[in-house]
Design brief:
By secondary structure, this protein is α+β, with helices and mostly antiparallel strands. The protein has two domains: 105-192, PDZ domain (Pdz3 Domain), CATH 2.30.42; 196-386, 2-enoyl-CoA Hydratase, Chain A, domain 1. It is 38% helix and 27% strand. It is built from ten helices and 19 strands. The strands form four sheets. Strands 3, 4, 5, 6, 7 and 8 form a six-stranded antiparallel β-sheet that branches. It has a six-stranded mixed β-sheet with strand order 10-11-12-15-16-19, sandwiched between helices. Helix 7 (217-230) packs parallel to helix 8. The longest helix is centred in the first third of the chain and has 59 residues, at 2-60. The chain is globular and about 75 Å long. The N and C termini lie far apart (92 Å).
């Protein structure tokens, strides 16, 4: 009798358990379903509104519509609408340009241009070993015409578009210097961008300035390290001022010879999982180091400074950095364009994420006198004292 009661009770408990499980599962499934329905309805409203707008414009717009430009504009608007300042949509042309820039190579003349108050284009930088430098163009020159295009009439943006072209194509620039106009005939070619500059300071301090982290930066960086140490450097200064970052893969290769073995930084994703972002092997340079930063030091350049600081390898000198501690991935689209999307937060191995905050230097120094580089001088002082 007792066995029958126990068996019946057990069966009842099982039935109750199954019923509760079913009710809970149904409840959460219903919640999930309702949420999906809301999402679908919201999406439907958005696309319906877009369709109404599209119909209205097509029926009433006076001009002609370029379908590709329209499509690119819609894609740009969508990504812009999420409100993230680092996420963006790239057209096919913009994506190609960005890939070339990331490679450390570009096709062009080797000029950096700014809009001048006169309405013309002012040369603000001339790259070494480029068509522009070979032709004798100089910083401060004003470009007034590109082929038959008058820059003042066309505007700066149209002028920039006219500067672009394929390798081997020619271009004629009318340049004003000291009140005199001169025509220059140039041929566009592939230019290797130099992102690492180096020199010996005195007999024992190696100075390395890194302007960006491109695909070709590690080769330049490692060569600079080897050259400086071979010349007797017993201390190093890394200048990352105005370096707005670049490729994490390039950063990793540059950090590797400076740090001990281990995880340097991780990426923390939306779903809670993390992945190793930067790893260093067991080879390591050991000598006094300093990193100079400023308010324009951002992204992977900040990670470079934070990593050396975390591992006790370098002192940070300068002003508070920009504070970009998030990771973007680039996803190529079927139309040839690409979406650059923020997907993770970056964390160094031994400190908090610096996103939105920046990195606070060990020695906060501002360059108040334009004739004196106080930050540079302090970095020299710091590594000199450590090397004694």
């Amino acid at each position: 009798m007792n066995k029958k009661i126990s068996l019946g009770l057990a069966l009842s408990l099982i039935a109750v358990s199954i019923a509760v499980t079913f009710i809970l599962t149904s409840f959460f499934s219903l919640q999930s379903f309702n949420k999906k329905v809301v999402d679908v309805n919201e999406k439907s409203k958005k696309y319906s509104s877009l369709q109404v707008l599209d119909s209205y414009i097509r029926d009433n717009y006076l001009g002609d519509i370029d379908e590709k430009e329209l499509s690119d504009g819609i894609m740009k608007g969508y990504v812009s609408g999420i409100g993230d300042k680092y996420s963006r949509y790239l057209t096919e042309t913009e994506y190609l340009t960005e890939k070339n820039e990331d490679s450390g190579e570009l096709v062009g003349l080797g000029l950096t241009l700014a809009e001048d108050a006169s309405g013309y284009m002012r040369i603000s930088e001339v790259l070494e070993d480029s068509p522009a430098s070979d032709s004798g163009l100089e910083v401060g020159d004003l470009i007034t015409r590109i082929d038959e295009l008058d820059i003042k009439e066309a505007g700066f943006n149209e002028g920039m578009d006219a500067m672009r072209g394929t390798e081997g194509s020619s271009i004629k620039l009318t340049v004003h210097r000291d009140g005199k106009a001169t025509d220059y005939e140039l041929v566009r070619r592939t230019i290797k961008v130099k992102t690492v500059e180096t020199e010996m300071l005195g007999s024992n301090i190696g100075y390395i300035k890194v302007t960006g982290f491109k695909q070709n930066t590690p080769d330049q960086f490692i060569s600079a390290l080897e050259r400086l140490t071979a010349n007797g450097a017993t201390a190093l200064i890394f200048d990352l001022r105005d370096n707005d970052g670049g490729l994490v893969t390039a950063l990793e290769e540059c950090l590797d010879p400076l740090l001990p073995e281990g995880v340097v930084a991780t990426a923390e994703y939306k779903d809670g999982h993390s992945e190793t972002l930067v790893y260093s092997d067991d080879s390591e340079i050991t000598m006094p180091m300093a990193v100079i930063v400023n308010e324009n030091t951002a992204s992977t350049a900040e990670l470079f400074a934070a990593a050396l600081k975390d591992f006790g390898k370098a002192s940070i000198v300068g002003s508070q950095t920009y504070g970009k501690g998030v990771v973007q991935v680039t996803n190529e689209m079927d139309n040839g364009g690409a979406v650059v999307l923020t997907v993770a937060e970056c964390r160094t191995a031994n400190s908090e994420c610096y996103n939105g905050v920046g990195i606070t230097p060990d020695f906060q120094v501002e360059n108040e006198d334009e004739n004196i580089d106080a930050q540079y001088n302090k970095a020299v002082e710091v590594v000199s004292a450590s090397d004694e």
